[in-house]
Amino acid sequence: MSSEYDSQIPSSTVAYFFREAMRRIWVSKRTSFVAVAMIAISMLIVGFFLLLSENLSRAAEQAQGKSRVDIYLIADAMPAQITAVDRYLASHPDLARRRFVSRDEALRRFVSYFANLNGVVSQLDTNPFPPSFECDIAPQTMQTAPFLREVKELRGIAGVDDVQFDWEWVRRLKRVVNIVNIAGIVAGAVLALAAAFTIANVIRLTMMLYREEIDIMRLVGATERTIRGPFLVEGFLQGTLGALFAVALLFGSFEAARTWIAPANSLIWSFLFNGFLPWQKIGVLVAGGMLAGTLGSWLSVRESGEEAT
Amino acid sequence: MIHFYHVTKRFDAYSTALHDVTFHIEKGEFVFLTGPSGAGKSTLLKLILRQMNPTEGQIVVNGRNLNAMKRRHLPHFRREIGMVFQEFKLIERMTIFENLSFILTVIGLNAKEHKKKAYTALRAVGLQHKMNYYPLQLSGGEQQRVAIARALINDPLMLIADEPTGNLDPDLAQDVLEIFNSANLRGSTVLVATHDRDLIQRSNRRVVALDHGRILEEKIAAAEKPPPRSESVFVNWSS
Questions:
Q1: Nearest Cβ partner of B108 from A4, A13, A216?
Q2: Which long-range contacts (CB under 8 A, 24 or more apart) does A124-131 make?
Q3: Contact residues, chain B, for A212 at CB < 8 Å
Q4: What is the pTM of this model?
Q5: Assembly ipTM
């Protein structure tokens, strides 16, 4: 005879859980479909936010990887003032990788970048672009106190009009990523809960369908664990299926949009269609579906356990 | 093995199924529980299986006080009892073999043992050739025999049957009695609730008679024909 309180579930029992769960899903195809679809929609929306945040994060990282400081001089800066700024930059390792951009070169760049505005440029009496220095710096440098001090010092040097660097922009982008992440988490949590309750109701219906069988199981000595196991596995499988459908749908939509919607040379689109989710995040999405499904079935089997005698 | 001490089961103020019932069934005994419909037989069996709790009194089964038993101990307690239900309680979507195998699965027995045990149990009731049939493809009597096979499959310490011969003709009823006798000889304590006077008469076993929820003191009947293992309450159905 088995021990008084078995702590191990035999492998044959686990196999029975899965066999029964799959059979019940098959028997109640329509209600199972509703549960799976609900999980799939929830995970699809969560996945959309994850994908958006992933691509924006990548864009921020790329921008951060190409960090640059622009030191704009006054339009009529004297050669001595330009040399003083150059000496300052040369003496500070963070800013030493510098390039001087003359007024003429700045105008040439503008004309080449915005060819359609050539007419406007040709009407100008004078060159409106100031001379500047461009410094390539390490992304991590931007966040340090010494760097910010150097920027402050630069702004105080005679002939310097303004100092601009990408960090603010990157910071704003990261803030957007955070908002997208929070929105994704909130929407995901709400939708996953809704999906869990749908699954709970589906499992409750299944349990009503199998009420007689459950009674027989109790009377012949089945433990609550054995009775509840197939229902828990049923929710788990529905959640897993829903999440897998969501991932497949998300991937298909993403690839289709990248191929058919996003123009190849658009900067904005290239940010948004940088790449699909990494495996870890796909894993999180699938795990979320599994968890929502299992939570739903656990909610209904817990109630049934409370009713049992 | 089964001890009732002043057990009363009341469903509401106007409906009392058992009144102050005290009786004892010792290990290895074969006892018939009899009485008219509504006498309280099924309630008594449900109390033994702890499908319900008594309103008053104590029930001790195999050394366990059922009133004090925790719910988590219930499955292991019920595995010691082979129960034959009046309405069979077979699962219609499963074959006969699956009905038996299912019990072994839910009590956690290794799948390898299922086939052998199920076949042996079905052979004991003469239905091994119908193991792939579904319950609704069998007659009432055959379904009853499957229910008996299921009750016996795990060699229970106690075999409890509620009207096990209600759907059987006399010959089959005798066969069922033989199965119960055989289980009793193998060491199971047997308690059979039945209306079947012939069956009781043929078996020559101890009888506990209930009427209106009380155990009858059939002293006269007992004096006319005392059963061989007389102890408390007896009924002689030939009178």
A1: A13
A2: A127/A103, A128/A75, A129/A103, A130/A72, A130/A73, A130/A74, A130/A75, A130/A77, A130/A103, A130/A106, A130/A161, A131/A73, A131/A75, A131/A77, A131/A82, A131/A100, A131/A101, A131/A102, A131/A103, A131/A106
A3: 89, 91
A4: 0.67
A5: 0.78
